[in-house]
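Much of the work behind modern protein science is quiet bookkeeping, done one molecule at a time. The fold becomes a row of whole numbers, each drawn from a learned catalogue of backbone shapes. The protein below has been through that process, and both of its lines are reproduced in full.
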Amino acid sequence: MRFKKLSSLMAVVGLGIALLTGPAISQEKEEPIVIYFFCGGPPGGTFSTVVYNGAKTAAEILGDRVDVKYIWSDWNPHKMVSQFQQAVAVHPDGIAIMGHPGVEALKPFVEEAERVGIIVTSQNVTLPELEEKYKVNGFGYVGQDLYGSGYMLGKAAVERAGLGKGNRALVWGLLREPTRGLRTKGAIDALKEAGLTVDYLEISPEVDKDASAGIPIIVGYLQKHPDCKLVITDHGQLTATLPAYFRAARLGPDDVFGAGFDLAPPTLEGIRSGYVDLVHSQQPFLQGFLPIFQIYLTVKYKIAGLHIDTGVGLIDKTNVDFIAPLVEKGMAG
């Protein structure tokens, strides 16, 4: 796997370490910086656990300089808004939010947080207007470029599957979410530009919560469309479940090209078995690690918000063994 060297990433990590160890740091006991951190999904979820492990690692490096409270939201945008409102009411030093609810839903509470001096930054799903407005106050972003990541995966899947005009593909995604849905849109656009016939299924809240609930949906689709040559799942848990979906439809590993997002131990097995052919990695560990340092550096040294694109890797059977040990430890995804 080839990852782009991120100079801004190295800069913030290097700066953080230098400021932590340098002689300019006061020897007096510091009051811990209180940070509320949104992990996104449920406790124990494959992706949210990697995000949590990244944040926890950053907190361990900073030691008693920070006091991090971890918030779990079950990937529910409405729950995220409610939890963010509650976090603002507590008046911590900083809050690291996920942008799934979208700008309009979060805007009044971000404005209130900024008004009372709470540093807000973001991860996983971007909030462009809020980031632009409050960047000078430390509002940054760590995560993929959503549309670009979807387009990257879609284009690569078409090329590697050897598909072209007239071939049928399915995208199973989240267009209903205004910002998060950009990744789905990117994948669809890439397939349509290549001339494919693109069918679309919306991931229901039930399947969003439990990927196995999607088995009858995908089996029904594949039975109705036996000419489908490519399935892209815009959801980490659904990608991990692709082998179960295809087996339930009585398809072998070479019958349909399976592609999706995020690595988890079941996804590794899917790649090795041939049922999962291509996965986009957005490096969720960094989405946990860097926002903690963003808030710390902004509180202590007035560092403006940094925008870090983590969505730069494509994984298949040729390079999966490189990253697999970290995925199995919950440190990559």
Q: What stands out?
A: Residues 284-301 form the longest helix (18 residues). The chain has 14 helices and twelve strands.
